[in-house]
Amino acid sequence: MLDKAKEILDSAKVKMSDAVKFLEEDLKTYRVGKANTLIFNNVVVDYYGTPTPVPQVASVTTPDAKTILIQPWEKKMIPAIEKAIMDANIGLTPQNNGESIRCVVPPLTEERRKELIKKVKTAGENAKVVVRNARRDAIEALKKAQKEGLPEDVQKDYEQNVQKETDAFGKKVDELCAAKEKDIMTV
């Protein structure tokens, strides 16, 4: 029965850790005034009828701090990539020279910074919801295990451990969001 309680705690930790990893990856895609190729991971282009992220159909590089260069592997993909960038509404205007696409990253306006901070807070809150749901599921599983023979004191101990993990992952989410907000507000 002790193995069951440990398994429940480990499962909750994995779910919480996945939520934090997802948040980290999501925050990397926010444009904060300097060129970052990761913002194109969520831009999808129609590649022979299949929705495909831009980095899978082109080389995406940053020749300098304010420019992103997209070199498609097939020249006929240039118009489709341009359209995908415009449709994605990521605040970049593609410039086509027939060989590649350049996107100059404009400085963030105060209004855009505030919008990004709202997005960061929303993403952080969503991650916290996933963490709390993992806690709830773990506590329910522990109560069920207690009815099936897990000693009550062991159940209470593991509930406290689940709460400690929840607090730790919640703090990690707050730290990630605070760091991203600071990054966004840095001019």
Give an overview in words:
This protein is an alpha+beta fold. The protein folds into two domains: 2-28 and 109-185, Topoisomerase I, Chain A, domain 4; 37-104, 2-Layer Sandwich (Gyrase A, domain 2). Helices cover 59% and strands 15% of the residues. It is built from four helices and six strands; from the N terminus they run H-E-E-E-E-H-E-E-H-H. It has a four-stranded antiparallel β-sheet, with helices on one face. Helix 1 (2-28) runs antiparallel to helix 3 (110-147). The chain is elongated, with a radius of gyration of 22 Å. The protein starts with a helix and ends with a helix. The mean pLDDT is 88.
Q: Could you write a compact summary of the structure shown?
A:
The chain has helices at residues 2-28, 78-88, 110-147, 152-185, and strands at 44-47, 50-53, 58-64, 67-72, 94-96, 101-104.
Counting helices, strands and paired strands, the structural category is alpha+beta
Strand tally is 6
Q: What is the fourth-level CATH superfamily of the largest domain?
A: Ribosome-recycling factor
CATH class of the largest domain: Mainly Alpha
End-to-end span in angstroms? 55 Å
Discrete helix count: 4
The largest sheet is:
4 strands, antiparallel
Radius of gyration over C-alpha positions, nearest whole angstrom: 22 Å
CATH architecture label name of the largest domain: Orthogonal Bundle
Helix content: 55-70%
Shape field: elongated
> How much of the sequence is in beta strands?
5-15%
Widest sheet, order of strands: 3-4-6-5
Q: Could you tell me the mean pLDDT? A: 88
Uncertain stretches: none
Oligomer: single chain
Domain count, please report it. Answer: 2
SSE order? HEEEEHEEHH
Per CATH, what is the topology of the largest domain?
Topoisomerase I, Chain A, domain 4
